[in-house]
Amino acid sequence: MTKASIQLKHPFDLTEYLSRRQLLVEQALEESISTAYPEKLYEAMRYSLLAGGKRLRPILCLATCELLGGTVDMAMPTACALEMIHTMSLIHDDLPAMDNDDYRRGKPTNHKVYGEAVAILAGDALLAYAFEYVAEHTRGVAAERLLQVVARLGKAVAAEGLVGGQVVDLDCEGRTDVTLETLNFIHTHKTGALLEIAVVSGGILAGAGPAEVEHLTRYAQNIGLAFQIVDDILDVTATAEELGKTAGKDLTAHKATYPSLWGLEESRSQAKRLIQSAKAELEPLGPGATPLLALADYIVSRTH
Ligand code: GRG
User: Which residues contact 282 (CB under 8 A, 6 or more apart)?
Assistant: First the structure.
């Protein structure tokens, strides 16, 4: 048994699964970057990368790789790269030029500690290092599968993914005429694209065929949108302590959100409906899908 292998208990215990997986991911992230010269840069990168968080994207990637017959070890470099990219997007999102946030993951934001210039550069370094890390550290995966993962990862973060979503989000600031179509565009790109590649990359690393990739894509798209609806709900209902960042920011900024368009009750039922659709996509993939099914439920029931 490798250090990465995990015995699942029956019935499936999601809390235990999440805490064991989070521990594995934390260890891998800790080992992924050590401090070197210039120390200030490496410290800023490590400060945000190792600041906690749910580690949902790495966990989805590992779970999907295992579902398709791969191993945790095969997927861990990609899982770490996903968290590096997610973390850099949070660092940049928190900058004064964007959301201007003071707290993230329960700690002062990167630019509050290291200054804006270093925060921008730490984000840039994490983004580039993510791609280097996948290419340098993945073992036991055929080169053409790895190339597919790298190409899809690039697409998910660039203009067709996170960055495109963020630009439209910034454009909509202060506007009261944001349509559901625009809101969906923002979130399928800003939030959904990285969750989608987290799931799909795990499948591709394990050798998923086109039909399996399609099921995984639809599962991920549904949980991605549900995740964002719940995020918007929590911005209204959760405390700053629970969130680890300022609560109620969307309301203060008069931002278009799902609760502002639909109300809280309808937002909750839309999220539940999306989770049911996500889970239906896993049916053809067999009993090994238990962790992904439980993770889908967790997305709507989470409190932070
Ligand atoms: C990717 C090149 C590049 C630049 C960044 C700033 C930006 C472009 C995009 C914004 C992306 C963003 C911040 C989306 C929000 C995603 C989201 C819902 C974050 C919260 O995720 P959780 O709840 O957080 O998984 P934890 O802390 O648990 O990891």
Answer: 215, 219, 289, 292, 293
pTM as predicted: 0.94
- What spacing in Å lies between the alpha carbon of 110 and ligand 1's midpoint? 14
Q: How confident is the model at residue 3 (pLDDT cuts 50, 70, 90)?
A: very low
For the residues 193-216, what does the mean pLDDT come to? 98
In terms of pLDDT, which residue wins out, 253 or 27?
A: 27
Q: What are the distances in angstroms from CA 236 to CA 229, 253, 267, 272?
A: 11, 12, 12, 18
Mean pLDDT of the region 147-152: 98
Domain range summary for the chain, segments of one domain joined by +: 33-301
Query: How much of the chain exceeds pLDDT 70, in percent?
Result: 97
Ligand 1 center from residue 145 Cα (angstroms)? 26
DSSP 3-state of 108: strand
Q: Give the separation between CA 205 and CA 73, rounded to whole angstroms.
A: 11
Average model confidence (pLDDT) for the chain? 93
Q: Which residue CA neighbors atom 18 of ligand 1 most closely?
A: 191
Q: Which CA distances in Å does 175 have to 101, 219, 257?
A: 20, 32, 12
pLDDT at 10: 61
Cβ(50) – ligand 1 distance below 6 Å: no
Cα(168)–Cα(235) distance, rounded to whole angstroms? 20
Helical (H) or strand (E) element with 92: helix 72-93
Q: How many whole angstroms separate alpha carbon 14 and alpha carbon 210?
A: 29
DSSP strands (E only) in the chain: 103-104, 107-108
Distances (CA, A) of 218 to 61, 147, 174, 177, 202: 15, 22, 32, 29, 14
Domain 33-301, classified CATH 1.10.287.80, yes or no:
no
